[in-house]
């Protein structure tokens, strides 16, 4: 993978790499309330297994309010208690996976799998069964492939609607939201060829706006109280600003003033560094990184519509 533009958080870097490898197709794992009867530890394992099914089949596991979701439904077909010592519980589960548009409520693909597990209690029996989910199972691969095709078709069919929505957001100065919308379009879709020229201007507007907002915030913190606590708060903000933003020169000036003051306060080590612009800029990857961070910071309260899927 080409070297990324900026030094970024490991989480953001991992998600960006995943998106590049799958041409931008994203899918979120969603476990509905109907599945809440699953024991807690088994519940967590199921979430992890769904993430593996997504990523090992060439899709990005987008946990930040993804429109498209993979969701499970589990039915206990049988539960037997053995007469052995220690007593064991044997479960036979019917796991059905679904992929669809969780916003519009449209089901794209489904696949059922039979799983068996044994454990000293029900939780361990569930976990034993769920461990048998194989992301590279041919049936799962076919299921994922059908879901991919439908996701790509969605973007191709609704391309003009998304462009209009992005234009409306841009007109409202909601550059970051418009950028999220545009960078979610998979490169493998025909829609991407239509919107790709719009990404760089949105990216530039987004980082320029963020730069001004963050610079003002850091400046206010530093002006109010020039001690080590203020230095740390301001430094954390300044270190998140993109180096290609229009006000980055002012960022460097404020950063230098704070660094000098920190030394005067006792020559302490200051752990904050500004981002550094590296080699050649890959605008698409940089825009996706920004969009991921912004989506991560948005409220994570999506109510998915999966009625009628099972």
Automatic annotation (TrEMBL):
What are the protein's UniProt keywords? Signal
Q: Hey, what's the signal peptide range on this chain?
A: 1-18
Asked whether the UniProt record includes Signal among its keywords, one would answer yes
Would you tell me the protein name for this molecule? Uncharacterized protein
């Amino acid at each position: 993978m080409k070297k990324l533009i900026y030094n970024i958080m490991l989480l953001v870097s991992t998600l960006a790499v995943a998106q590049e490898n799958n041409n931008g197709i994203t899918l979120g794992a969603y476990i509905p309330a109907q599945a809440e009867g699953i024991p807690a530890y088994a519940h967590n394992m199921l979430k992890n297994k769904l993430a593996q099914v997504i990523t090992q089949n060439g899709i990005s596991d987008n946990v930040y309010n993804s429109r498209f979701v993979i969701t499970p439904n589990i039915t206990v077909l049988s539960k037997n208690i053995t007469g052995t010592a220690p007593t064991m519980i044997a479960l036979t589960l019917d796991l059905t996976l679904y992929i669809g548009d969780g916003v519009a409520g449209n089901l794209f693909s489904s696949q059922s799998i039979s799983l068996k597990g044994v454990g000293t209690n029900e939780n361990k029996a569930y976990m034993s069964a769920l461990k048998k989910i194989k992301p590279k199972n041919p049936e799962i691969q076919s299921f994922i492939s059908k879901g991919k095709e439908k996701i790509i078709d969605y973007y191709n069919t609704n391309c003009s609607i998304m462009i209009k929505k992005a234009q409306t957001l841009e007109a409202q100065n909601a550059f970051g939201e418009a950028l999220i919308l545009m960078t979610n379009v998979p490169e493998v879709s025909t829609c991407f060829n239509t919107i790709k020229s719009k990404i760089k201007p949105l990216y530039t507007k987004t980082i320029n706006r963020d730069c001004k907002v963050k610079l003002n915030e850091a400046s206010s913190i530093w002006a109010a109280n020039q001690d080590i606590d203020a230095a740390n708060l301001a430094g954390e903000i300044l270190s998140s600003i993109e180096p290609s933003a229009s006000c980055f020169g002012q960022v460097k000036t404020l950063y230098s003033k704070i660094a000098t003051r920190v030394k005067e306060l006792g020559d302490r080590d200051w752990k904050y560094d500004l981002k550094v612009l590296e080699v050649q800029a890959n605008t698409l990857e940089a825009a996706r990184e920004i969009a991921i961070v912004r989506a991560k910071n948005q409220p994570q309260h999506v109510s998915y519509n999966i009625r009628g899927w099972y």
